[in-house]
Amino acid sequence: MKRTFSIGGIHPNESKLSREAHIEIFPVLDVAYISMAQHLGAPAEPVVQKGDKVKVGQVIGKPAGFISAFVHSSVSGTVKSVEPKGDLAANPVMHVVINVEGDDWCEEIDRSKDIIKEIPFSSEEILEKIKSAGVVGLGGAAFPTHVKLNPPKDKKAEYLILNGTECEPYITSDDRIMRERPDEIVIGAAIMMKALKVDKCYIGIEENKPEAIASMTEAASPYPGIKVAVLKKKYPQGGEKQLIDALIGRKVPSLALPIEVGAVVQNVGTSLAVYEAVQKNKPLIDNVITVTGSCVPHQRNFLVRVGTPFSKMLDAIGGLPKDAAKFISGGPMMGKAVANMDASTLKATSAFLLLTETETKRKEESNCIRCGKCIDACPMGLEPYLLNKLSRIGGMHDELEKEKIQDCIECGCCLYSCPAHIPLLDIIRVSKAEVMNIMRNRSAKQ
Amino acid sequence: MITTIIYTIVCLVVLGLLFSVVLYLVAQKFKVEEDPRIDIVESLLPGANCGGCGLAGCRAFAEAVVNATSLGSLSCPVGGDVVMENVAAALGQEAVKTEPKVAVIKCHGTLDNRARINHFDGYASCKVMSTLYSGDTGCRYGCLGKGDCVEACKFDAIRIDERRGIVEVDEEKCVACGACVRACPKSIIELRPKGPKNRRVYVSCSSKDKGAIARKACSVSCIGCGKCVKVCPFDAITIENNLAYIDPSKCKLCRKCVDECPTKAIWAVNFPIMVPVTPKQEEPVTKTDNREEKI
């Protein structure tokens, strides 16, 4: 029987329009805008100045804290400026702007296509290589991978879980890498297993990707510890807690990390980046981005260098489609609307989705009829209608905390399922931020 | 039959008496002594429960007033000096005059002044909008125009001007309770002294961006050029983070800064407009609000 997580979930139309499009290499542009806030945690500190010559793979930002990561140049050329520029929400973030001259890579990077299976490194060496390559989680949150692979001493990891579910509609970048580069992903998993000192690894893939399941199963066959697990299609299966529940049947406690139940979850894209970092000395400077949408004439999957502006990606698909009204970085459920087309892609950008006005139109809000659909849909077992009601009263932070608003993963299932079109998630997200802030202040005081 | 009724009545009467005695004893035992003046003061207050005084409501304010030794730090913004005089008389204390205040919106990024660069189609709330992104204009400090302050105002003193895409305060209705100040996620509302004859001068901008960026986003933004600081004879203006601030306690309403400001970010409200005196027109034309003039 195919597994899935136990509570909640929805079945949005999968719309994987670009699943048959091969990965194409996106041309290197004239200017790259590389953000220093590529990851969760503190933004990196720029270590280059105006006028410096940089090569592909050279460090341009160093971590500024424990949860932070290196940033490398994805192009070669001269640093034009180091200045704050708008990110996709138009908030200023430090960027290194590089004028591209040629394509000159650092010597230590192995650019051959050979697949290296042997892992001659120790656990510490692997972690150091991953850290210096600036690898971050490519599942969306961009959590620095070396931190995740180095759990606290008193916690023991038992399972490595690779997330190949790609439950978001439209996105196909993980599907494509699993079909085109399965061996590298599996070696990446073996490297992470060695770093974590675990011998069990599950690769969770949803049933709607039969080709990826076949290729990954074949690639994993020489490794006794790595198993491909076929999962039922259900959103948000790619959520860390949901995936752990689906694969090993353990529930991660409220506000705890997966390591509490002995699991470490990594995206398949991260696994590929780990392989490249450890075996090829290649830092994370490019990633596969799906450019899709019903209004896009040719669906594409591009291998894009970090720091490519979204506006240039429009040019690559033949200009702005006539009826495109909304641009989203990521999928339609959890992606962020792009408010600033000059913003550039990040390491963890998975898709660039173009939606038409009819697809994005919000329906008019009406009254809650207490049907309970949001409660059925919530994968965290919360009561979204109640959280919404408490939030709208204002000042009910204690009550919201009791109702576990802090557990909300902002997946949007409640909003999707609401027949009254109440903007549940919008309101819950604001209150969640307030409650989390209060909780942080409280723990800081203690 | 009749005996049943009699028994019932007798039983209930006995029970009732018994309970009344118990209740009386309990009430005596757990009696809460409350100052009777609290009720008197509360009856004098407006009863808006707005929290403008900084306390939980009118009852809490009444308790604070009764327990306070002087009224210096306590004032009811809704009732103003009239109510505070009554309260002081009831308590036999000295009333302390406070300066009446009014909420001012420190942004004039109307549709004409500040071009919209994207369209927000989410839930119409400034709070929701500001958690998602910097806003639908190039300025990330200015008014989002979704009306969280309008919703927070219990006195119907703020409205959204749909045509101009910005909020406006009705100074007749505003009691300076501060609910809008707390509701605004961009912190662009300030409570300022109403000023003599309701005249006041303030910087109507909250942008902390550098001059070029601020100006590009909005034509009436403060660019932090410092001309107003130089021209001010009373040292009332300071610039911090590329944004000028006029200290209302030092400002003498000379309006030199208003004329000097290159972007017209400094506003003078409720001043009569002086028309050059010509033989035909001798009376100066008075306008109640010159903001309308600048549309």
Task: Chart the SSEs and their pairings.
The complex is a heterodimer of chains A (446) and B (295).
Chain A: E1 23-25, E2 31-35, E3 45-46, E4 53-54, E5 59-62, E6 71-72, E7 77-86, E8 92-100, H1 123-132, H2 145-148, E9 159-164, H3 173-180, H4 182-196, E10 200-206, H5 210-220, E11 226-231, H6 240-248, E12 263-267, H7 268-280, E13 286-292, E14 300-305, H8 310-316, E15 324-329, E16 336-337, E17 351-356, H9 357-360, H10 373-377, H11 384-393, H12 397-402, H13 413-417, H14 424-445
Parallel strand pairs in A: 1-14, 9-10, 9-12, 10-11, 13-17
Antiparallel strand pairs in A: 2-8, 3-5, 4-7, 5-6, 7-8, 13-14, 15-16, 15-17
Helix pairs in contact in A: 1-4, 3-5, 4-5, 4-7, 11-14
Chain B: H1 2-29, H2 36-44, H3 58-67, H4 80-91, E1 101-105, H5 126-132, H6 148-152, E2 158-161, E3 166-169, H7 179-183, E4 189-193, E5 200-203, H8 211-217, H9 227-231, E6 237-240, E7 243-246, H10 256-260, E8 266-269
Structure, described:
The complex is a heterodimer of chains A (446) and B (295). Chain A has 446 residues and is α/β, with parallel strands linked by helices. Chain A has 14 helices and 17 strands. Chain A has a six-stranded mixed beta sheet. A four-stranded antiparallel beta sheet of chain A has the order 2-8-7-4, with no helix packed on it. A four-stranded parallel beta sheet of chain A has the order 11-10-9-12, with helices on both faces. Chain B has two domains: 36-91, 3-methyladenine DNA Glycosylase II, Chain A, domain 3 (Orthogonal Bundle); 101-294, Alpha-Beta Plaits. Helix content of chain B is 32%, strand content 12%. Chain B has a two-stranded antiparallel sheet. A two-stranded antiparallel sheet of chain B has the order 2-3. In chain B, a hairpin with a 4-residue loop joins strand 2 and strand 3 (166-169). The relative contact order of chain B is 0.10. The model of chain B is unreliable at 281-295 (pLDDT under 50).
